[in-house]
Amino acid sequence: MAGSILGDIFKISTWGESHGKALGVVIDGCPAGLELSEADIQKDLDRRKPGQSPFATPRKEGDKIEILSGVFEGRTTGTPISLIIYNKNQKSKDYSALKDVYRPGQSDYTYDLKYGHRDHRGSGRSSGRETAARVAAGAVAKKLLSVLGIEITAYTASIGPIEVDPDNFDQNYIMDNFLYMPDQDAVKKAEAYLTEMIDENNSSGGTIECNVKNVPAGLGDPVFDKCEALLARAVMSIGATKGVEMGKGFKAAEMSGYEHNDFYRYNDSGEIIKETNNAGGTLGGITDGSEIQLRVAVKPTPSIEKTQLAVNRSGENINLNIHGRHDPIIVPRAVVVVESMVALTLVDLLLKNMTSRIDYIKKVFNAEN
Amino acid sequence: MAGSILGDIFKISTWGESHGKALGVVIDGCPAGLELSEADIQKDLDRRKPGQSPFATPRKEGDKIEILSGVFEGRTTGTPISLIIYNKNQKSKDYSALKDVYRPGQSDYTYDLKYGHRDHRGSGRSSGRETAARVAAGAVAKKLLSVLGIEITAYTASIGPIEVDPDNFDQNYIMDNFLYMPDQDAVKKAEAYLTEMIDENNSSGGTIECNVKNVPAGLGDPVFDKCEALLARAVMSIGATKGVEMGKGFKAAEMSGYEHNDFYRYNDSGEIIKETNNAGGTLGGITDGSEIQLRVAVKPTPSIEKTQLAVNRSGENINLNIHGRHDPIIVPRAVVVVESMVALTLVDLLLKNMTSRIDYIKKVFNAEN
Amino acid sequence: MAGSILGDIFKISTWGESHGKALGVVIDGCPAGLELSEADIQKDLDRRKPGQSPFATPRKEGDKIEILSGVFEGRTTGTPISLIIYNKNQKSKDYSALKDVYRPGQSDYTYDLKYGHRDHRGSGRSSGRETAARVAAGAVAKKLLSVLGIEITAYTASIGPIEVDPDNFDQNYIMDNFLYMPDQDAVKKAEAYLTEMIDENNSSGGTIECNVKNVPAGLGDPVFDKCEALLARAVMSIGATKGVEMGKGFKAAEMSGYEHNDFYRYNDSGEIIKETNNAGGTLGGITDGSEIQLRVAVKPTPSIEKTQLAVNRSGENINLNIHGRHDPIIVPRAVVVVESMVALTLVDLLLKNMTSRIDYIKKVFNAEN
Amino acid sequence: MAGSILGDIFKISTWGESHGKALGVVIDGCPAGLELSEADIQKDLDRRKPGQSPFATPRKEGDKIEILSGVFEGRTTGTPISLIIYNKNQKSKDYSALKDVYRPGQSDYTYDLKYGHRDHRGSGRSSGRETAARVAAGAVAKKLLSVLGIEITAYTASIGPIEVDPDNFDQNYIMDNFLYMPDQDAVKKAEAYLTEMIDENNSSGGTIECNVKNVPAGLGDPVFDKCEALLARAVMSIGATKGVEMGKGFKAAEMSGYEHNDFYRYNDSGEIIKETNNAGGTLGGITDGSEIQLRVAVKPTPSIEKTQLAVNRSGENINLNIHGRHDPIIVPRAVVVVESMVALTLVDLLLKNMTSRIDYIKKVFNAEN
Hints:
Family (chains A, B, C, D): Belongs to the chorismate synthase family.
Strand content of chain A: 15-25%
Order of helices and strands of chain A: EEEHEEEEHEHHEEHEHEHEEEEEEEHH
Largest interface: A-B, 112 and 112 residues
Strand order of the largest sheet of chain A: 1-2-3-7-4
Catalytic activity (chains A, B, C, D): 5-O-(1-carboxyvinyl)-3-phosphoshikimate = chorismate + phosphate
Number of helices of chain A: 9
Subunit structure (chains A, B, C, D): Homotetramer.
CATH superfamily of chain A: Chorismate synthase AroC
Keywords (chains A, B, C, D): Amino-acid biosynthesis, Aromatic amino acid biosynthesis, FAD, Flavoprotein, FMN, Lyase, NADP
Oligomer: homotetramer
Pfam family, one (chains A, B, C, D): Chorismate_synt
């Protein structure tokens, strides 16, 4: 209700401020019997972790995950899984200078308007650091989806004006560069562009694409819980996102029905296939078994060193200079966050879909008829 | 859970198939004491109603709303408001020819995959007709928002390649043309374009923009219930939408932080204002009191007369010819649906925000300090 | 949220006032493929219907159910099932005399305190008539449970001081008497007692018991969603209930651990059985496959003709004389309501339990190990 | 959904096994601005803590609470409050002997039936230890309710056959004895009775009563969210409870309407008062401002040293001897748990009630008429 709980069956409840003692997540509704270890989760957290790239803040967060409950002898028990990450690097004094300032592009002002009282240290609850808890929960979701062979892949699709060229697309290259881009040439151009931004004390936006393969048909529910609606909500809940598209997205608005419709054919094995996938994997809000394809717009990092116009709580206009290194771009570290939010959405839809038909009930309870 | 219920406090539960006896919505959680009449609702339904324009299906639906409960002596009682629209124009036989066919761009195939059994008449539950219930509920939400002076305006921003020119923007013109566009020149061009599409037995996509004025600050909750996340979910749950943006949206991905950040200044009245509104009305997922601005991509009508490749349930590839007039474009009739979904989202956030602070509790219960 | 929606997967949303145009319920989340007809529902509604017994109000309500959506060619489609009952017998003038009076034992005063504005006609939303919608939804739930052979039986266990004698218990007799008691002798005594109450212009309380056979093991979730917790909530939400017990209930408070514990044995077929069922069918909030047994206390009808002390809204103490016939006892008509609430609770737990184990997921999606 | 989350606005998500690393709770939806310290919570935990009485297990749990998030400079921020208690006394080997045994009156068997895989150490998730997290959350709820002067008092009302005598009722004595009984004579008799039970290696049940003073009118929602329904669910979700009553409870079933109805009068200050409070504080499910009164039946401790009949997972009937000291009665330590569950229920209803009327909305948002 107050926004830190997500999901209907696979429910996650996240908590923690940027500079508090710790942050974490409780997962209620993970089925029993899933193999799960801290290593399964740590490997995704490491992708989000700062300090690994010339294009990310050098703040060493550590981000070591600990499982506190819900797993026994290496398998989930069906009871709540509590995951915690202790904050090692809390230097609150770094931030005291900003406690009465409303920084452009940050939530300082809106949190004050809403709550009247806020933890100002490092953006508190609205820090990007909050996403570590999502990634931890998402790793559990991905483990569960892997039982059915579902594979989620996200990557950086553009950085500022530099876009991945589909002709150069190399999925294997994604994990081999700090920018998580599937195109070697684009990476080089993007690195040059980001260096320029860093030199200007400025920052860059970008886009992330996410594809899901081996999705079972039938995920998503009519009307408000359409698969694309819940995916859109999930990725638009990541702090810096400004837009989301499924399939052809905004390009669909310029197409004709004849161009946009995906035509059906039977293949040689007698299965129905689509000749194209303009829809991006769903029809009527329900997956058809084809690849889910979505794209997310991420705004540039709002914390920049370049002097900006701002105000303080004492009624003064000020020229704001933010010191210290920040990520010159949010996108690369957000790739795994998008992946996690997609996984969390799909796992919930998958579990819900189990209750959609009388014949599934009969299967589970071994009912004759 | 099964997708036809939306909202946490102002909960709506919609029901009904395109060619069933009726369709409707139950609203649970509307505060008591709101003045409400059938006329308040009917005027929005009339904007969605078919048969009013050369660019919309001539099917006469009537769409007469009836309030069955929850309103007494002209005011809401706080108990569920049940709204019903009887279907007058049920010609099921029109559709029997298509019952074994999977039409491109429709949900025939996915509903069968999910449920094994579906009402095939006129797309059943996944018909655009379902949105009439949303519009009815949305009209109640808008009535409630009007108590605080909140104003929501949606309009057609583009049709195929024809876009509204910001320099010609005329808000008063929106309700004066069948396309609900705020630009006389664009309307002329769009009419020509749509006539061309009709002649080709084809259809067009387009975009809708929605602005909200006088929004109280503080709406939206941290992390998953960010205002933009819930708005994205709400509009992406409308059948034909393929993308959504807040503020600069995908353009933000190409901007630098210095360009995208909205700078703050105190105005002469000592109020904090933003010099720009690139963010589109929220920061950290919470409204700041500035205008909410969003944009939605709508795909072209999938039902076209032009021959398409399709399959049937008997394992055959077929050439599909759909007869009968359909909307050559979904956008104009969807304008009021977008407006409704935005209203439903905001009313729920508004009610939730009432519980966010101890001092609000003291106000409501007249507690001393 | 506002209290007229129940369930997490099999969600029901009820609406309607006693003297409004109609009342009804929308069920969202009923699995597709369930055979369902109006007759399935009507037969339960007829058990609740007034005017059938010398011990019930002669108000002829009719209570004819109509299915408006969600069922196609005799089977559910997985989309919302809307059920409606039109009110035939709306004589609002009968009630106008009481519109400014706060009747003892009724909700007049509390609804005014809460909402400031209420439909005073025949208790409006808080009328027992509201339960017709629950019974309609409950009939659908029972139909679904019957797929797995689950049988729910409720009956009158006591009327005022007259209790059913376990030695005379005759399940077949329940449906053969207006009081729905399983004991011919008790029925005679109860009839005499009720006649006395009627002669005094007074009313009687009583208790209802409900047993469920063939319950699958595993229903109920740890901590807050224990089977008994959700059953307690469900039956305590019926207007006139004042208490609920599972198994030995309050008697357990006087027993020792050795007496109360149900001992386990393997039977000849190698199945685990309990030697007793003091627990009433669950342990740790989860069903063990034995019979669920619960008991509900129902207060006497508050509307009595005997003169009572009351107040009106003008600040006056008054002597209240309520005219017209009312049920001298609520219990017999509430028997089917208890049955319905138990069914609704179990169906939701049953569907939730499908998602509790990885091996169930593999079964439904035909996943290899 | 999986049962460890409770509440619609003030949402709590509990986690942790008896012998895991830690247990805790996340509260999402606590309003901002509430003063809160660890001491506020610790004092309630200390009432539940074992090892303090001759009639409780000597296991030293410590139960030291730590606030990990959501509180800044001594006040809540409106973001999730994460509370943790580390388990100090994990001797898993103590329990290994029982890992293949199904103990009578415990959840060993049902957890295995449901999940196929469970943490058998000290009853795992279904241990009474789980309630420490509820008490921690309940302490926060009570702090919030105290802003409006609401006072909740629970106490032991009976132990086995020994009942509190209303004529000896002394509220101040409750916190002065290990049994939390408000009657010195009853305490003496109960101590004798419990000593007898301990000597027999047996255990005792009992009842708990809970009263709430200064409750605002208007809490509770029509139909399914009646105040008494949600209270019943809350207290029946405590592991060992077997029944619950409001006001006269089961006695109401034997009363006539004239006896049970609470008559209204205006007092000298022109306020409406009830001459009696048989209803226990609500009508139609909504509080009327009078005292809430409920009573809970608690079964005897199932873990007893006396030899019992049981089974193991290898298909054998066994004679079970459980060694080690257990509480001879659950009731005294459960008193604060009942208080906590009542507090959690009321705080949620209180927050929901803020959204029930248009005039409350106007108050919060300072809207003109």
